[in-house]
Amino acid sequence: MNKSLLITAVTAVAALAVGIATTAATRTPVHAAARWQPGNHEPWQWMISGTFNPNNQSQLQGDAADQPTVYDIDGFLNTDATVQTLHARGDHVICYIEAGSWTDYRPDSGQFPASIIGNTIGGFSDKWTDIRSPSLRPIIAARIQMCAQKGFDAVEPDLEDGYSNNTGFPLTANDQIVFNTWVAQTVHNNGMSVLLKGDPEQAAQLAPTVDFFLNEECNAYSECNMYPALSASGKTVLNAEYNGKCPASAFSLTNLDTTLFKVNLNGPRTPCANSKGGSTLAVPAPTAVTTTTAAPKTTTTVAAVRVPAPTTTAAPRPVRKHRHDPRVGPR
Questions:
Q1: pTM for the whole thing?
Q2: How far apart are CA 192 and CA 87, in angstroms?
Q3: Confidence of residue 225 (pLDDT cuts 50, 70, 90)
Q4: Are the C-beta atoms of 297 and 275 separated by less than 8 Å?
Q5: Is the dihedral of CA 97, 100, 106, 109 positive or negative?
Q6: Fewest CB atoms less than 10 Å from the CB: which of 62, 119, 124, 206?
Q7: Per the domain annotation, does 228 fall within a domain?
Q8: What is the count of structural domains for the chain?
Q9: CA–CA dist 323, 331 (Å, integer)
């Protein structure tokens, strides 16, 4: 074969291969105005303890009266077929991944260099990672691309608050802002929306970068007051409470959407009175003892299923990571 023809052929094949890989790995970036976010008090389900069955009504509704139209499910354990089934019903689907930790049972766990794996997260086999390391970014980028390939609408990157925990690395608040911003930009470049999970102390700073928010127990930990300005701006604040206590009925934020879940996030849910479909539900009476001040965020070693015990003073807040190892089921 003519040498020039051979070179041309090889170049064409290589270009085609690159084009196919790029197409499979990414979707077209979506401008901010066109990005999806949950609507005002839109019913939502959060089930990340295992594989989600879109044909199981108890998983869909969690035995509540309303029918969710937003589902936050595990990105690794669920298939594109599950996402397509929910899309066919007009629902939106959020892809749960770990962004700031190493988990031994994920299929990409062997790609993490030992040097970026830090301290164990209390109560779990998971470990914090060094979010400053350039070695971490390609791994997380691949996880985000997986979500895009499966057709998810948004991404929930978990454990994006290592700077305020005992990770084993000297992480600063600015390190966290840089990493969380990079994660959000990478999600957007893959054509999806992104939420900020936890990290309420940096929520205002990251608000221009993320599309909506997810907090765990802002009522129990007196953090809901960190979100009014963000909620009033039109960005939805999803809030999960685990102790069976909704915010007081007089407490209202424009886009705060509180739902009660079991701590292992395996299906049961009860929307609070400030959520669509929950207006007829009674708001549980407050307990005799409440926490009135925000607690410092620290990592503590506690049982795998952790519901903070009522105390007369503010207690250190444990790492609230409630997705469980699918190899052993809910703990």
A1: 0.77
A2: 14
A3: confident
A4: no
A5: positive
A6: 119
A7: yes
A8: 1
A9: 10
